[in-house]
Amino acid sequence: MTAKTPPSVADARAANQTAHFAASTAPVGETESLSSGNRLFIALQHVIPQHGISRLVHAATRSRAPWFKNLLVSTFMRGFRPDLSDAIETDPLAYESFNAFFTRALQPGARALPADPDQLACPVDGTVSQAGRIEDDGILQAKGHQYSLAALLADRREWVARFRGGHFATIYLAPYNYHRIHMATAGTLRETWYVPGRLFSVNRATVASVGSLFARNERVICCFEQEDLSHALVMVGALNVGSIETPWHGEITPGRPRSLCRVPPRPGAPSVVVARGDELGRFNMGSTVILLFPPGRIEWQADFQPGRVVRMGEPIGRLLRQRG
What we know:
With 324 residues, this protein is α+β, with helices and mostly antiparallel strands. It has one domain (1-324). The chain is built from nine helices and 18 strands. The strands form four sheets. Strands 2, 5, 7, 8, 9, 12, 13, 15 and 17 form a nine-stranded antiparallel sheet that branches. It has a four-stranded antiparallel sheet with strand order 6-14-10-11, with no helix packed on it. The longest helix is centred in the first third of the chain and has 18 residues, at 7-24. The two termini are 35 Å apart.
């Protein structure tokens, strides 16, 4: 099974996405200093009602009024030109709401999973922001900036201990990307936590300037086990991200008290035993995902580096089987 986008179109798309990522998320200081506009934008984020704005976006993107929905979709198509060739519905105006368009499903067989069951499948379409080792408790956010694993996981001590010194990958989803999130490897869902927080943008300037951004923003943490392997996927909210949801819990944000809490599966939810490649969540608007693995249990592919454009399902690393 292969994606239906012709190679020439896919190559051009990858080049455009790399350029977009370099312009919007690469660490400040590598190519240029912060502009006055970026400094103002960052300053404003500390005082604007981030959650109020995101609630307005949440309401607007769910409107089914044809004129308003079509205006949002048409404006988005002109501004971002997303590739709909592998979507189930390729007509952008056929969706019932902007949110349905934004979280559109792929056609069956649009993405192939790795043939080797020990290979890790990329969970999303996007661009690698950072990937590497967790240095004890430190995770690289951007050049010159680290944040704490314990802070990211809201001090869930059992899981912090499992991933300390392990491996992480941070993948940025641009607005034009496919916005459903899938399993990198099989697992049984053990815990889901909602962690309240801010909603800073995840653009280049903000990520490079706001310390511990991913551990400060609102997020949903899903922790999995499969035999003797643990892993976690963190869905990080951002400015204008209307909500985060999973198949087992429905919509987690917004709408619940903004306090740290464990989120139980809703009655009648699908099985929490999840195969590699199965859907595990979606951003209703886009942001960032962070994968976490224990030390000595995986290795990333050599080309899985910052700036790499990735597509859901492609191999990004390999499980390392422990010898008995």
